[in-house]
Design brief:
Largest sheet of chain B: none
Oligomer: heterodimer
Strand content of chain A: 25-35%
Number of helices of chain A: 4
Structural class of chain B: mainly alpha
Radius of gyration of chain A: 16 Å
Helix content of chain A: 25-40%
Distance between the termini of chain B: 19 Å
Structural class of chain A: alpha+beta
Strand content of chain B: 5-15%
Largest sheet of chain A: 5 strands, antiparallel
CATH class of the largest domain in chain A: Mainly Alpha
Order of helices and strands of chain A: HHHEEEEEHEEEE
Order of helices and strands of chain B: EHEHH
Chain lengths: 159, 71
């Protein structure tokens, strides 16, 4: 299971954009109800849009509630990849789904920032810093993808 | 996708989880991949890459083995 061929429609795309806008504004993932309130539509309409976006591999939903688990690169729940980004006047913290996504948060916000992580093997603290588009890791590190690309979406939470 | 201190640590992790060795990227490659993949993600004009476009990006970053093929 590689890249999905499902194409979201116009409403689903507007829901996607609003979800990210609210995520960045609130500093946390909004609920279906919070997204629906900004459109003045029913929660079920947003739930349907979330389902379409999940089928298109644009969101990952929590299995029970249907709320967002991943709005890649952002995680709605705490993970071992803490991202700190610098705003105009403040610093903000986020969670990335993995090291790729954690760096993606910094890229998406077009900001300097750092990822506070740890070695997947021994747990030693590691910090990956991005400053003016240049990346450094302290201590030096290597990124490992356990699954071949064609299987990334077979179990995206493990991946 | 996890971060490790070194290739040796990846080998130890794979052995512990009884998983075959996967694909590795330098931190710089991972940053360039993340930057290209996510920079415009919350733009209204964002659209998902096609498989060919993704492969072209991977190729430009040196991710050329079969491991990195999406389909």
């Amino acid at each position: 299971m590689g890249i999905s061929t499902v194409m979201p429609g116009d409403f689903e795309n507007r829901v996607r954009v609003r979800l990210y806008e609210l995520f960045l504004e609130l500093g946390r993932c909004p609920s279906k109800a919070e997204v629906a309130a900004t459109f003045g539509c029913g929660v079920a309409d947003v739930a349907d849009a979330f389902d379409e976006l999940a089928a298109a591999h644009i969101l990952v939903l929590q299995p029970g509630s249907g709320e967002v688990l991943m709005a890649n690169p952002l995680s709605a729940v705490p993970t071992p990849f803490v991202v700190e980004t610098k705003g105009v006047s403040d610093s903000r913290s986020w969670y990335g789904n993995c090291i790729w996504d954690a760096l993606g948060v910094i890229a998406m916000l077009q900001s300097d920032g750092r990822v506070l992580a740890s070695c997947g093997c021994c747990g030693e603290s590691m910090t990956v810093q991005v400053r003016k588009g240049e990346v450094t890791s302290q201590p030096p590190g290597v990124v490992h993808f356990a699954l071949p690309a064609r299987h990334w979406w077979d179990d995206i939470v493990f991946n | 996708m996890l971060l490790f201190r070194s290739e040796d640590h990846i080998d130890r992790w794979c052995a512990a989880w009884r998983l075959p060795r996967g694909g590795t990227l330098s931190v710089e490659q991972a940053w360039k991949l993340a930057d290209a993949w996510y920079r415009d993600r919350f733009s209204p004009d964002w659209r998902r890459r096609t498989v060919d476009e993704a492969h072209e990006l991977f190729r430009s970053l040196g991710m050329t083995s079969d491991f990195w093929r999406l389909a």
